[in-house]
Amino acid sequence: MSKIGFIGLGIMGGPMAANLVQAGHEVTGFNRSPAAVDELVAAGGTAAASIAEAVSGAEVIFTMLPDSPDVESVVFGEDGVLAVAERGALLIDCSTIRPDASRRIAEAAAERGLRSLDAPVSGGEPKAIDGTLSIMVGGEADAFAAAEEALGAVGATIVHVGPAGAGQTVKAANQLIVAGNIGLLAEALVFLEAHGVDAEAGLNVLGGGLAGSNVLSAKGEKMRNREFEPGFRLELHHKDMGIVQAAAREAGLTIPLGTLVAQLVAASVAQGDGALDHSGLLKQITHLNGHD
Ligand code: NAD
User: Fold this and answer.
1) Is there an atom of ligand 1 within 6 Å of 17 CB?
2) % the chain with pLDDT above 70
3) Mean of the per-residue pLDDT values for the chain?
4) Is 3 a catalytic residue?
């Protein structure tokens, strides 16, 4: 069992840290807003009052933060992860950030004698709570081997997809697929309702055929009931569509459907819906059709 420092105890990080405690690890957590740290303590973890306190003496360091600048400041900052972590420690960043930012972190970590992985996750809050996330891991094979036990406490599908940054590239593809799925599910729902068809029955039968998807199972019922409590906030998906578009441009690719859905997500955020769950994209599709 490892001594683990965990930074970023939000919707995803909180339950992930609790699952690491449950698996027998010694987890010391830090979060910018202290209420989340209290929850980790209630789950059997230890409170840290700073990044340095969480990282000091840790064999494994997890970060689960909103965006690239957050991770960069926690890793590169004065008294940040690289300044404080002991040589040989393993840094596992589970945040969804830009692949180039992950590659820079990996290079700097190696220069400091640390091992590091980008290990973004998919499955949302329910799978974070169950410890059954899908985890797409980029980095060196020896770091992946060293991380398997800790990652096994938070995930069920854990795949080494390539070198540093590759985990983030796969996660970007994940976000492209999920956003497109939600957009089409929203259109199908508005379509069924406009025709006066029983939307509950409709979604049930669609879920059993080729139109079925994890998005439909996880979000269909909530969308039908207009329950948009996050979950995964639209503003975070907006960030991720920015990552997808930049990475597509870097590879000289055009992603027409992804670009359209990115614009719809951007409009939702601009209209003040960024704090809603990403299934709140349904509101945008509804407005575009002149409905309430
Ligand atoms: P969140 O906003 O709920 O959690 C982030 C936490 O980090 C917050 O508690 C915040 O206080 C803390 N934080 C921010 N900056 C900090 C700093 N400098 N030092 C210490 N703590 C800091 O976000 P989330 O939904 O848990 O998402 C985290 C990451 O996981 C994001 O990159 C997101 O895209 C990704 N993700 C989220 C989901 C989901 O369903 N929510 C699913 C997969 C991936």
Assistant:
1) no
2) 100
3) 98
4) no
> 10 CB less than 6 Å from ligand 1?
yes
Q: Tens digits of per-residue pLDDT, 41-89?
A: 999 999 999 999 999 999 999 999 999 999 999 999 999 999 999 999 9
pLDDT at 1: 87
Give one DSSP letter per residue of the chain, joined into a string: --EEEEE--STTHHHHHHHHHHTT-EEEEE-SSTHHHHHHHHTT-EE-SSHHHHHTT-SEEEE--SSHHHHHHHHHSTTSHHHHSPTT-EEEE-S---HHHHHHHHHHHHHTT-EEEE--EESHHHHHHHT-EEEEEEE-HHHHHHHHHHHHTTEEEEEEEESTTHHHHHHHHHHHHHHHHHHHHHHHHHHHHHTT--HHHHHHHHHTSTT--HHHHHHHHHHHTT----SSBHHHHHHHHHHHHHHHHHTT---HHHHHHHHHHHHHIIIIITTSBGGGHHHHHHHHTT--
Q: Provide the whole-model pTM.
A: 0.96
14 within ligand 1 shell (Cβ under 6 A): no
For ligand 1, atom 8, the nearest C-alpha belongs to 10
Instruction: Report pLDDT for 164.
Output: 98
Average pLDDT over residues 104-111: 98
CA–centroid distance, residue 145 to ligand 1 (Å): 25
